[in-house]
Amino acid sequence: MNQTVETTGKKIFETPLYPYRRSADQEPGARAHHPVVVAGAGPIGLAAAIDLAQMDVPVVVLDDNDKVSWGSRAICFAKRPLEILDRLGCGDPMVDKGVVWNIGKVFFDDRQVYQFDLLPEKGHKRPAFINLQQYYFEQYLVERVRELQAEGKPIELRGGNKVVSVTPKDKGVALSVDTPDGPYTMDSDWLIACDGAGSPIRAMMGLDFVGRVFEDNFLIADVVMDADFPTERWFWFDPPFNRGQSALLHKQPDNVWRIDLQLGWNIDKDEEKKPENVIPRLKAMLGDDVKFELEWVSIYTFQCRRMEKFRHGHVIFAGDAAHQVSPFGARGANSGLQDTDNLCWKLKLVMDGLAPESLLESYDVERIHGADENILNSSRSTDFITPKSDVSRAFRDAALDLSERFEFARPLVNSGRLSVPCVYDGSPLNGPDALEGGPARTRPGATCPDARLGTDFLLDRLGGEFQLLAIDAEVPDSVEDGGIAANAIRVSAADDPSGDLAARYLGDARSAVYLIRPDQHVAARWPSFDEAAVKAAIRQATGRA
Fold first, then answer.
1. Which fold has domain 30-99+128-209+304-372?
2. What is the structure's pLDDT at 215?
């Protein structure tokens, strides 16, 4: 049995997608200056760069690598990040290639105790989740970069360019970059650090995380096999093939299955990753008659930690460079995409002089709130999956036993509460909630839920700018304040005979006017149009109040 196989993913990984090329910045005597530099060409760095380039903000992405990451790594992508990727032009290839799922099953010992549905309601363009190897995700993002370059958008992706020093300045950042042709220097107005959990930039600036490191190890194996398991998330507590531990099974494209096996704390990681030790574990789980090959093996020790602040002057951290969670609940890449979705429109307004630099403080407020919510949920999942005392284990096992027969016990079972978008309650950017009887799910700070409108969907109409969503209400074509315009989108509850639009946006109200931010979070809402109130809410949402 081979340790690796030549799959499509392997070929993608072996091919440099953004090979090193000498740039004009490296010529003798050059002292380059760029408005924005992104450090890291992983999913979060590329998403940030694409978002900025679509808004015509010049951006350069630097990475010491020249190809996509190998292994599945981040594989579960939730509905909200898929909606963000729609706006970035990458949603369709993700969903077309990915394995769509919404059913999860929970097992205890040798029996299934219950199952759940992550998207019980209709009227959404995107599914609850897809599974897709990270190398495909990165490939689609690089392809989108190439499309934007062909359109003349100001985006550059430099492989083989390693940031080796960062010097913050009053109004920018000085960078030293190493390449195969030697080092060079550049200045940037803004640096977005998306250089991963080990973030060299964070270390260069003497910054660190606060939080917990969990004393446990998990084996990840990408296994190529033809199997008739359904397209569902299966999670085992104390299974016969991994006694006293847990296990997870996910299907991916190309007949690749992701298996996570809990190993415990005191292990020899190098030994556990050897095929002769991995394969017997997988056979115990899958059965001796199942033919499979190993594509990728790794061991992770997870953390639930974050930086105290994400913004440090003109250096801004996003994704794993800013915060880390356990993989239970798919909050890593999903939360990182929500970071860049929150940041980029604010940075654009600041750079254009339409908002004060203090607007960027709301990135810290809102995304630290999101990180804390993710860390809380992730920590609770981890404590349930890996109980640290006999009492905790007894409680967990009792909850699992009861959940098989009694519905009241199922919310107590936590096999990884799956990622949902953060609501920015208490954000300084939130305007009034004057819609009496309006649904709580669309209060200020919440993301806009999708709804079908004839042959298309609401979120596709919203796009990535300020919008004034009018539902059975009269509004002008546009409202402007301080050079920032909110353009009208007029719809009627009758446009959606299913009643989803009314249920999600009207509730008990007969009409509504919503001010929607560029990241599709609700800024404010009213029962009818009031020009002065809308202008005040625009000022509030852009940090000018």
1. FAD/NAD(P)-binding domain (3.50.50)
2. 64
CA distance linking residue 422 with residue 436, whole number of Å:
23
What secondary structure letter does DSSP report for 417? P
**Model's pTM, two decimal places?**
0.94
Tell me the C-alpha distance between 119 and 132, whole Å: 18
How many CB atoms within 10 Å of residue 531?
A: 11
Predicted local distance difference test score (pLDDT) of residue 120: 67
| Alpha-carbon span 33 to 191, nearest angstrom | 12
Residues contacting 497, CB < 8 A, separation 6+ = none
**CA–centroid distance for 531 within its chain:** 35
In terms of CATH architecture, what is 215-301?
2-Layer Sandwich (3.30)
pLDDT surpasses 60 at 91? yes
Q: Is residue 6 predicted with pLDDT exceeding 50?
A: no
Q: Which residues pair with 175 in a beta bridge?
A: 166, 186
As a whole number of angstroms, the distance between CA 469 and CA 442 comes to 12
Under 8 Å between Cβ of 16 and 22: no
Pick 440-541's CATH classification: 3.10.129.10, 3.40.190.10, 3.90.1200.10, 3.40.30.120. 3.40.30.120
Domain boundaries, the chain: 30-99+128-209+304-372, 215-301, 440-541
Q: Which residues contact 364 (CB under 8 A, 6 or more apart)?
A: 309, 310, 311
Q: Whats the size of the chain, residue-wise?
A: 545
Task: Sort 276 into a burial class: Cβ within 10 Å, 0-12 / 13-18 / 19+.
Answer: exposed
- Counting Cα atoms < 13 Å in the Cβ hemisphere of 117 gives 4
Count Cα neighbours of 133 within 13 Å in the Cβ-side half-sphere: 29
151: left (phi over 0), alpha (psi -120 to 50) or beta: alpha
Report the number of secondary-structure helices (H) and strands (E) in the chain: 14, 28
Amino acid symbol at 339: D
pLDDT in tens, 331-377: 678 899 999 999 999 999 999 999 999 999 999 999 999 999 888 88
Cβ neighbours of residue 320 closer than 8 Å, sequence gap 6 or more: 44, 196, 197, 199, 332, 336
